[in-house]
Amino acid sequence: MDCKFVRKNLVGVVEGQLPPEVRKRIEAHLQTCNRCTDLVEGFTQAWQAWEEPTGIELSPLFWTRLEQRISAAEGKRALPLARDGQRWLRPIAALATILIGIFFGYQLGSLSTPRVIQSSEQINSAVEQFVDENLGSLYDFPAGSVGEFYVSLGQNN
Amino acid sequence: MNDNELIKKIAAKDHTAFKTLVERYQTLVISTCYSLLGNRQDAEDVAQEVFIKVYQEAKGFRGESKISTWLYRIAVNLSLNWRRKRKWDRFLDIFAFWKQEEGGNAYPFETETEDRPDRVIESKERKRILSLALDALPERQRAAITLHKYQGLSYQEIAEVLGTSLAAVESLIHRAKLNLQKKLLPLIDRI
Q1: CA B149/CA B162 separation, integer angstroms
Q2: Which chain A residues contact residue B174 at CB under 8 A?
Q3: CA–CA separation, B3 vs B121, rounded Å?
Q4: pLDDT at B104 over 60
Q5: Which of A40, A84, B92, B167 has a CA 20 to 30 Å removed from the CA of B41?
């Protein structure tokens, strides 16, 4: 039971921030439990890493690299109009493409839209219009039967 | 020249003033980035980004907080962004299965400690264990405890850097310690 208690309070043990009665209870347990003693020892050592310096060495080229990057960034800023132009070019091109697409789509759609006929008068006028447009040449046929017409064709040849 | 004068000159694109600021604060910025990233090269790259941001945004610095607080804030934000980006890159690497051969050991300390005759943990190993446990913390907890433990910032200063309340920082650090305890236990048990 006290092993669990120790494991729950490791940070407190290491940082010495436990209330006196808790600390006494843990110390009493540690005197009888080698496993927990090892654990507290290992945890204390791991926690010591906070105190150790990071040991990071500064690169002598840090400033040189930084200066180059700043100059490069300033060079890019020297042409704000070109930069703004580039920034606006893409959305404008995208919008133009969409509008052109809509225009052509509308044109294609209007070509194939079927005529909707809703009354008998409309049917009659549509038939008349069809006959006038497509079968008008029949009225040019000579009078008489179709048979006579073909016979006369043969005679002419 | 004091910090506020430096910032005014940097706002006017004075390179000499900027160099003075960099020399004055590069250790602070690089060590903050390093403690959050755990990698020297990454820390230097992010530190460069921090100073570039300072150079570009010096005009907007109103002087309401100390320059060091401002630098810590930028360093923490950029380091956390960098970590998120790296996480995403690592996720994408899952699909690039051929890259796995190049990868290192996920627990590099394991092989080194395999045949250890004693239980004394070397300094390098201690840092590695702590770094692994820190890696597993949520980012704000990691930032708070790192600023407190490595940079020695007070809770009030951390609150200013993270833009939060003192009570929130206390809670973040308390939870960070409990989580670290939980994460460190299995790592210590393996040794």
Answers
A1: 15
A2: none
A3: 42
A4: no
A5: B92
Q: Where does a domain end: B103, B132, B167?
A: B103
Residues in B closer than 8 angstroms to A46, CB to CB, are 121, 126, 129-130, 133, 184, 187-188
Condensed to tens digits (0 to 9), the pLDDT of residues B111-154 reads: 344 444 455 567 788 888 888 899 899 999 999 999 999 999 99
Instruction: Select from B52, B126, B129 the residue whose CB has the most chain A CBs within 10 Å, as the one to mutate to test that interface.
Output: B126
pTM: 0.66
Q: What is the pLDDT of residues B64-96, one digit of tens each?
A: 889 999 999 999 999 999 988 887 777 776 666
> How big is chain A by its Cα radius of gyration, in Å?
48
Domain endpoint, select from B86, B103, B120: B103
CATH of residue B32: 1.10.1740.10
The residue with tokens 């627990």 is: B107
Q: Tokens 């051969």 correspond to what residue?
A: B101
